[in-house]
Amino acid sequence: MSYRLPGWTDERVAHVLSALEKRYFLILDWSPRVTEVREQYPLPLEETLAIAAELGIDHARERRTREKTPVPLSTDFLLTVQALSGPVLVARTVKYAADLSDGRVIEKCEIERVYWERKGVRWGIMTERDFPSGSSRTSCGSTPSAFWLASRRSTTIMSLA
Fold this sequence. Notes:
The protein is of the alpha+beta class. Helices cover 32% and strands 25% of the residues. Helix 2 packs across helix 3 (103-119). The longest helix has 17 residues, at 103-119. The two termini are 30 Å apart.
């Protein structure tokens, strides 16, 4: 399931691909430290193909065609976060914790991690376990103002930079 959400941070509609991404987006959108949220940020195919080859990992491919054409990878969220030293980029992938036991998911995350490491951007995986307790109400579409306050106290969510 995908969602289109109005964003407060950069005043545009955000497109997320899961309820978990929606939940994370709503928390980020109300954070005073996050100044820009870019979702489903595409990674250059040539670079991710090269990284996959270096790591000996099969790159993601179109499964519905006979040619099995490589498909671009994306990072769920590329954020601009206000740090003490100024704005910094932070990349985040959002996965359900149970999905992290799937070797193929881990392989694609490794390609993504190496890509961002080479760019000098902090990358990490967020799961439902990283969200402040009680923030699940944001997945129902509630205005997350009360949960934003909870997220301000969450070191996992707010230790972005």
